[in-house]
Amino acid sequence: MYLGGILSLAILAPNLLMFLFPPTSIPESAAAKSSVGRGMAVAERIGQIGTFAMPFFYRLSRPVGTVAMTSLATMVVTVTIYYACWVRYVRRGREYGLLFAPLGPLPLPMALLPMAYFVAMSAFLSSPYLLTAALLFAAGHVYMSKQELARSRATSQP
To answer: Is residue 1 classed as helix, strand or coil in its secondary structure?
Structure first.
């Protein structure tokens, strides 16, 4: 049975909190995006679709070997910290800037953790196609998150 999609759902499920607990203090829309910004948004979207959909076509099996075990451990650690970031977001009043705020020494944790998760998942599933989608997603998501962090900081300053 193809159950790889469970891995996608594990990291994407907390995003449903956005519907239940929408962010507050969202800055006004930015001015027209540059061509780089539009390209990165497209890369992010293509990567999102790929990283979500591709695992549904993979079978889950018992991890065997160092690569599989290390990948699985990385996935568990990253998803746990990612969930902690979502708890922080909800508990601290759902401020928009918290979606992009650093967590200790980790900048942009809500962008970097899913990226690390999907890269580890590509190793776990032995999928170069998923790795390609994860890298596209990472490039776009980190770029767009940096833009949103700057925008949220600019509007929160007096």
So the answer is: coil
Between CA 112 and CA 115 the distance in angstroms is 5
pTM for the structure as a whole:
0.89
- pLDDT tens string 120-149: 999 999 999 999 999 999 999 999 999 988
The distance of Cα 41 from the centroid of its chain, to the nearest Å, equals 14
Q: How far apart are CA 100 and CA 113, in angstroms?
A: 12
Residue 106, classed as helix, strand or coil, is strand
Contact 24, 95 (CB under 8 A): yes
- Contact between 129 and 51 under an 8 Å Cβ cutoff? The reply is no
Q: Give the residue carrying structure tokens 């070997």.
A: 65
